[in-house]
Write a structure and sequence with these properties.
- The two termini are 51 Å apart.
- Strands 15-22-23-24-25-26-27-28-16-17-18-19-20-21 form a 14-stranded antiparallel sheet. The chain has a six-stranded mixed sheet with strand order 3-4-8-5-7-6, with helices on both faces. A six-stranded mixed sheet has the order 11-12-10-13-9-14, sandwiched between helices.
- Strand 3 and strand 4 form a beta hairpin.
- The protein is α+β, with helices and mostly antiparallel strands.
- It is built from 20 helices and 28 strands.
Length: 770
Amino acid sequence: MVSHGDSETRRAIRTSASLCLRGFFVSAFSLYLCGLAAGLAEAQVRWPIESPPPPLAARDIKFPPYEIQTLSNGLQVVAVLHHEQPAVTMRLLVRAGTASDPKAKLGLVHLLASLLDQGTTTKSAQEMNDAIDFIGGAMGAGAGTDLTFVHMMVMKDSFENGMRMLSDMARHPAFAQREIERQRQQTLSGLQVSAEDPEWVANSVFDRLVYGFHPYGMPETGTPESIVGITREDLLAFHASHFAPNNAILAIVGDVTAEEAFTTAKKVFGDWQKQDLPKSTFIEPPDPTRRVIVVNKPDAVQTEVRVGHLGITRTHPDYMAVNLAIRILGGEGSNRLHQVLRTERSLTYGAQANMDALKDAGDFEVETNTRSEATSEVLRLIVDQFWRLQRERVSDRELDGAKAYMTGSFPLTIETPEAIAMQVMNVVFYGLPLDQLQTFRERVNAVTPDDVQRVARALLRPDRLSVVLVGNAAAFASQLNGVGFGAFETVELADLDLTSANLKRARARAGGAGGAGGAGRAGGAGRAGAVRLISYQQPPLPSRSAADETPEDHAKATALLDRVIAARGGLDKLLGLKTIVARQTQISQTPDGPAPAETTNYIQYPDKFRVEAPGIVQGFDGSQAWAKDDRGVHVAADTVARDARSSLRRDVVALLLAAKDGRLKTRLLADAKDASGHVAHALEVSAADLDPIVLYINPDSAFIEKRAFAANAPGRPIVEEQFSDYRPVNGLQVPFHAEQKVGALTVERNVIDVRINTPLDPALFKRPAS
């Protein structure tokens, strides 16, 4: 992440009928289950201790005066008056960073930013470099997670000339094909090197675990496949839609008056036309969950360790208290982790804890490395420190040390015009109170040990840490069970795919119990004992990416969709489907053995359902999710309601209708083949706010045999559901048998009775009074 403030520098089962607080999986004929993972005192020799000298008294902070104006076209202009040197620094920030990458064009913003100072429509890259050298200035450009920027530093006598060059860079980039190819090759070379770098791999996998498929979790520099697919037209289109004055901030810092700064800004940028901005809808990051990923690099002699979970946004009201808590855990001024791992046990050269607090989300992350054989011990000690910070009140001495470092180092962050510009734009970008820079020291010193304990208890989740270990798995994997991490996923470094739900390149997926070797055709063997799912092998499709889809590909996908709709009973029948009442038997294969149950499901399209099971009733009325059991009526969290809506969108009937009317995109994938040689067509459906769902379709009957997607549950497990035994009901073809696998959980269902378009009382879906 490009520096812009602290944040931009870093970046099971209770019962088969229990209410799932996170991850509702609902289909027209099923209740999807989800899980909720539910001394000797040592004598010490007292040696004489000499305390370190106290820190010097903090010197006064005099932040230079500044003024802010908004031009008629919406451009915010910040003028900071700093007369120590006869120079002026200008930085134009656009509120669109790598998180705004189009889904199929990862790395586009990073590539675009690298080209902003490589020529404009009036000057080549060489001419620009000659011009800036002639006036003794410096220029640059870059992209962060939430922003893109161009930068210019010139002497006072070249102020207007420098601003015009800045404007030209931001508003009229050439995107010359020669420069595109040069930057593309540099990016590809960098990706090739990064793919073998354990530190880069650990950071990237950690982001994916914490943020899921939210843009913050995707690779900022893209993938080799996405970078190759970016065209000049893609760059021009993104620039045209996002680079606008009402989406930008201009900071002017240096030896100018406020009048000079604003007058020049109006003269240079006043004709930049205001425009409507695109509205982006992102998938929300998953809630924190305990998940361990081991990336196996057999030739490694040490392990890169990352531990943490989802954090807070930059505008969180407890930002300062949380900042200090994380610094006590592993930052400057205190750093418990360094004390334990380095000073006391010599397990590492250093350890630190960071807090990324971005616009839409954030994360807490501990990072270190250690020799392979010490991996499990280091992991245990890190987790212990998370628990300690949450359970024990921090000492005044620890907190004072962290405060002293923050307040003492703050003047260093406003010494140069560029650093001042960064601080001011950080405040303006996040919409923070403008007096925060002047009151920084007071706000730091106002935090108490009680504040730190309060936020640690409220926001830290030591029981739901995401863990990434990159190293020689053979040297430490067997030790993980001994420190409480017996359940982990191993990914070979060569197979790592940051865009995949399971972080692995597409290969044959093992079925339920028995693995791929025991997989059978839908509706055949496997109804007794362990559930066996069709396990398809689908090769990677670099030639069939969404960006490269041809009109012929689109026509084939549309034709296949039409076949599927016709096989289910036709478009009119699907459009006429209003309600479903299905009674079914269900057997859940849990780690404790089979759990049978009979359930009745009520679906009212498009957005209501009710599930009745022994001992519990669950419902969703379109806005609120609830459950009723022997303890009373419970209102589920907003996240459950959100997941219920997502699950209803993934209902097969809803998917087909949304794909037909264009609300969902369809893409034909390569045919998939299971272990027995059975071939199925594969059709992907997706939207900007809906992760891809793959439908596997029988080539003869056009019935859907299976669907697969990443669930909105902790850890983003893959849900694979197989359908069979289709029977006609009121003109619709209904699968009377289904087998599902979600992580370690398998569920088998058989429909006993199903009624279509039976009038239902709206009160069925409302939360009961008691």
